[in-house]
Specification:
It is built from 20 helices and 34 strands. It is of the alpha+beta class and 733 residues long. The chain folds into two domains: 484 residues, Endonuclease Chain A (Endonuclease, Chain A); 198 residues, no CATH class. Strand 26 and strand 27 form a beta hairpin. The longest helix is centred in the middle third of the chain and has 20 residues.
Length: 733
């Protein structure tokens, strides 16, 4: 029997470009199938030379050139799923260890289940290398019967302790950590999994993976495994002293059973090493994706978006096409950054006040045509924060879950989120999921280095979500290869999340990113935007959107919070771009920006000009992005900014954060600093000038990341080919 295992890698992934709509697909087996974007452009000269850019004539920028794929044969393979909800599994008896051995690279255990005797084990060294740290959870890689089941090799034998010993140590450890009789529990982060620990209604200790958390329980606190080791070591040592046990290596039986159970715990007292042995999930059959399947799906979706879906969306598609054409002309005529300046000409930093925020908010009222609303903002930085909070909220939802995502991947972690949403839908919760068709399909093509070895995801994420569940899924169309890049989640019409994270493994484990949790009347606005997009993705298309737009707006959220504003990128009005550009023009004191993709010349120009006015301008960007070409674009942008006195910080890893603070005005959300996010795709950002949330964003994100990053002091090396990529990037990215 094989067991699934997921693990954490600190190494950022070099991933295929899935959020930009220049499509060049590369399958898991090196299958090149679709290339798009033809453009004719001439005459752009380098920024470093400081010469005027020649006029560029750009026509017919999008052309589907190749669709080459045959329908691959489909085979049914077995992969893990959650126990009890979507697969039948007989009740398990506890695994009871009789012998155990451990060395630097492997472990072995002889154990019983009922009257049957087995030998099992796994690799410690591989897990440690993959995780980048000492293993906390290790998989039981093999589990086989043996007449003479005895460990082999020269590993150190362990002292085996029974379930009663573990219960004694456990109860002492958690006595002060887990509330009893309050409907609360704690989350423990093991690096590759999050467990919810609580006392049930009968005051019996219980453990579940967080996505199986009882809905009527809330999370009272969160701890790392290192926290538990620090608190638990003296408790454990005291117990061993009481029992007169002097052995160095201990193997404890926990009695834990079921999916994701932790039946064994190794403790090496000399090295302070501790690792749980982890079982996998129950098995479920689904059709695994084969090379070329996603390409066929993508081609079908692109064709559908430009045929039947285009017919039902004539107005919105025409407006988007017109705006793309006019923006292409505007991009061609735009003046790039000025030539590099003499360092002596860079002015000192201003010491006076920043811009008038009251006047600025009035200007935004005129710019957007909308007044601010109220809401509270809670920043959730990195996947551990966000997914813990989201799963907690979704598992406790009482009526509805509305999820709008650019990408819902088919990796192992995304499927766990899918399983949780399916369970909630089958329990009577109204679960609606709106996905960007192109983004979600393309994401299934990509290889992820941190996936369990041999893992293959399902053929269709949509089919997986709808299979044996009451989940309602719609796929947004992609006219002219534009996308719905918004990421929002609304729970019970009272709680919302928005920001830069998609539902995928890298956002939980590998990348630096953030979301913001919203409460108050602003949630009604977010829900209404979801409902309009949901109607637009339906069969009625533009007509459905129009009907929803004139319908009564939701009024469910509590009247709490401070003034906040939603900003959008729409086909006819790029509010996020206009607002951030104007804020950069107005800033007098400081500008802090963190983004993954710096390819928009207009924003770069404003940042450089602000520094030349004496503004303290600082940007944070990743050294290597998930989009190969944009890595070069970022390097050139960093050089141009550095030449104008802007402080450039290189984040150690992949940062997908999209946030800015300018003279006390904060703006964050889904929009990158590239042409597609600022002008063409659908995007949503949250903005505020209230002192408290702005200060918290500066402290929790920017101050931490300035310290964590490396400040650039010398420009990156440049080649002439980099400027060719940069030229293409101005139009494509």
């Amino acid at each position: 029997m094989e067991f699934a295992v997921s693990y954490l890698s600190e190494r950022p992934e070099r991933r295929f470009d899935r959020e930009v709509l220049m499509i060049a697909f590369s399958g898991r087996r090196g299958y090149l199938a679709l290339a798009a974007v033809g453009l004719i452009a001439t005459g752009k000269l380098t920024r470093r030379a400081g010469l005027l850019r020649a006029l560029v004539a750009v026509v017919n920028w999008v052309a589907i050139t190749t669709i080459a794929a045959g329908c691959s044969g489909q085979t049914v393979e077995t992969y893990p799923t959650l126990t009890g909800h979507f697969a039948a599994e007989a009740s398990m008896e506890p695994l009871i260890a009789e012998q155990g051995r451990l060395d630097s690279s492997r472990y072995e255990i002889v154990f019983r289940q009922g009257t049957d005797r087995y030998v099992g084990g796994g690799n410690l060294e591989a897990m440690s290398a993959s995780a980048g740290s000492e293993p906390l959870l290790v998989p039981l890689e093999y589990w086989q019967s043996s007449e003479d089941a005895s460990p082999t090799g020269d590993a150190v034998p362990a002292k085996v302790l029974g379930i009663a010993s573990w219960h004694t140590v456990r109860d002492r450890l958690f006595a002060a950590l887990i509330p009893v009789g309050t409907g609360e529990g704690i989350v423990v982060h093991f690096g590759i999994d999050d467990y919810f620990l609580y006392y049930d209604k009968s005051d019996v200790f219980a453990v579940a993976v967080i996505d199986e958390k009882p809905g009527d329980y809330r999370i009272a606190a969160r701890y790392t495994f290192e926290d538990l080791l620090a608190w638990g070591r003296p408790v454990f040592e005291e117990y061993l002293a009481e029992e007169g046990i002097e052995d160095s290596l201990i193997l404890l039986n926990t009695g834990d059973t079921g999916a994701y159970s932790l039946p064994f715990l190794f403790v090496d007292r000399e090295s302070s090493f501790a690792a749980f042995v982890r079982l996998g999930r129950a098995s479920r059959n689904y059709v695994a994706a084969k090379s070329g399947d996603a390409v066929v799906q993508t081609a079908g979706h692109v064709i559908s978006s430009h045929t039947m879906k285009l017919i039902s969306r004539p107005v919105s598609s025409a407006v988007r096409l017109l705006f793309m054409a006019t923006d292409t002309v505007s991009e061609t005529l735009r003046v790039p950054l000025t030539s590099a300046v003499d360092p002596a000409d860079i002015p000192p930093l201003n010491e006076g006040p920043g811009m008038d925020l009251e006047e600025w908010e009035e200007e935004l009222d005129r710019l957007t045509g909308n007044q601010r609303t109220q809401g509270t903002l809670r920043y959730l930085i990195d996947g551990e924060d966000f997914f813990t909070r989201f799963i907690d909220a979704a598992s406790s939802a009482e009526s509805s879950i509305s999820l709008r995502m650019y990408i819902f991947d088919n990796d192992d972690y995304a499927l766990r989120i899918a399983d949780m949403l399916k369970r909630r839908a089958n329990e009577g919760i109204d679960v609606k999921i709106l996905l960007d068709g192109l983004g979600t399909i393309v994401s299934t093509i990509e290889e992820q280095e941190t996936l369990p070895q041999g893992y293959e995801g399902p053929l269709s994420v949509r089919d997986y979500l709808e299979d044996q569940s009451e989940v309602d899924v719609r796929m947004a169309a992609n006219p002219w290869l534009t996308g719905d890049h918004v990421k929002t989640l609304v729970i019970d019409n009272k709680l919302a999340f928005t920001g830069g994270m998609n539902i995928a493994r890298e956002y939980r484990y590998d990348w630096h990113d953030m979301m913001v949790e919203l409460e108050g009347p602003v949630v009604d606005r977010v829900q209404f935007e979801f409902e309009k997009a949901w109607a637009h993705a339906g069969a009625l298309g533009d007509f459905g959107y129009f009907l929803k737009r004139i319908s009564p707006k939701p009024r469910h959220a509590d009247n709490v919070g401070e003034p906040v504003r939603l900003l959008f990128t729409r086909a006819d009005h790029p509010e996020i771009f206009l607002a951030q550009r104007l804020a950069a023009k107005r800033a007098q004191k400081y500008i802090y920006v963190q983004n993954a993709y710096f390819t928009d010349d207009a924003m770069l120009y404003e940042l450089a000009q602000a520094r030349m006015r004496g503004v303290d301008v600082r940007v944070i960007m990743p050294l290597v992005t998930d989009r190969g070409p944009i890595t070069k674009n970022n390097a050139l942008a960093a050089n141009a900014l550095l030449e104008h006195g802007v402080r450039v910080f290189i984040y150690p890893g992949m940062s997908h954060v999209k946030a800015a603070v300018m003279d006390g005005w904060a703006c964050l959300g889904s929009a990158n600093l590239d042409r597609w996010s600022l002008k063409l795709n659908k995007e949503l950002n949250v903005a505020t000038s209230e002192p408290d949330p702005v200060r918290r964003l500066e402290q929790s994100l920017f101050e931490v990341d300035f310290e964590r990053s490396v400040e650039l002091t010398e420009p990156f090396p440049e080649r002439w080919s980099d400027y060719l990529l940069e030229l293409v990037g101005d139009y494509v990215f």
